[in-house]
Amino acid sequence: MSKLVIGSDHGGFALKETIKSHLAARGVAVTDIGTHSTDSVDYPDIAVKLAEAVADGRFDRGIIICGTGIGVSIAANKVPGIRAALCHDTFSAAMSREHNDANVLAMGERVIGPGLACLIVDTWLEGSFAGGRHARRVEKLKALDC
Ligand code: RB5
User: Fold this and answer.
1) Is 116's C-beta closer than 6 angstroms to any atom of ligand 1?
2) Which atom of ligand 1 is the closest one to the Cα of 66?
3) Which of 13, 15, 55, 143 has a 20 to 30 Å separation from 106 between CA atoms?
4) The whole model's pTM is what?
5) Residue with the nearest Cα to atom 3 of ligand 1?
6) Which parts of 35-132 fold into alpha helices (H)?
7) For ligand 1, is residue 7 a contact (CB within 6 Å)?
8) How far is ligand 1, taken at its centre, from the CA of residue 44, in Å?
9) Low-confidence residues of the chain, pLDDT below 70?
10) What is the pLDDT of residue 45?
11) How far is the CA of 17 from the centre of ligand 1 (A)?
12) Do the strands 4-8 and 84-86 form a parallel or antiparallel pair, or are they unpaired?
């Protein structure tokens, strides 16, 4: 299993805790980089902290959560090397791995329930990159990094 990191702002804190419990029950190790309460924080700060930890190789993949998933996905995608996918269904989660080699999964606690969120996490973690023609396209994404 690859090294996994998870983070959220206050709007995603409860779902982060739920996902941590879910992963622990499955024996999946994950490092929590915060936030550690429902006190208000700014989502770009935690999203960039997680994204940099993935981009510099400390972790292979990351899960980032806010109220909608939108703010954290926008912020994470500004870090070179990050391909963050905002997924609120299992098909998108599977395709984000197979076609886009997404290395960050973003979700919104206020958008979906915890059961679906855990299923999305499982789908995303089990997915693998298909390579082939998708590799050429991901290389073009990488070339857009500055
Ligand atoms: C925080 O209220 C909220 O704006 C944040 O969690 C997220 O939804 C932003 O995109």
Assistant:
1) no
2) 6
3) 143
4) 0.98
5) 67
6) 43-55, 70-76, 90-98, 114-126
7) no
8) 10
9) 1
10) 98
11) 17
12) unpaired
Supply the pLDDT for residue 122: 98
Residue 106 and residue 64 in contact, taking contact as beta carbons nearer than 8 Å: yes
User: What is d(CA 35, CA 74) in angstroms, rounded to the nearest whole number?
Assistant: 18
If DSSP codes are grouped into helix, strand and coil, which group holds residue 116?
helix
Residue 107 CA, ligand 1 centroid: distance in Å? 11
pLDDT at position 1, please?
Answer: 52
Chain centre distance of CA 145 = 18
- Look at residues 23, 89, 25 and name the one whose alpha carbon lies nearest to residue 61: 23
Q: Which residue has the CA at smallest separation from atom 4 of ligand 1?
A: 67
Superfamily of domain 4-143: Sugar-phosphate isomerase, RpiB/LacA/LacB (3.40.1400.10)
Q: Where are the domains of the chain?
A: 4-143
Hey, which residues are catalytic here? 66, 99
Cis (ω within 30 of 0) for the bond into 18?
no
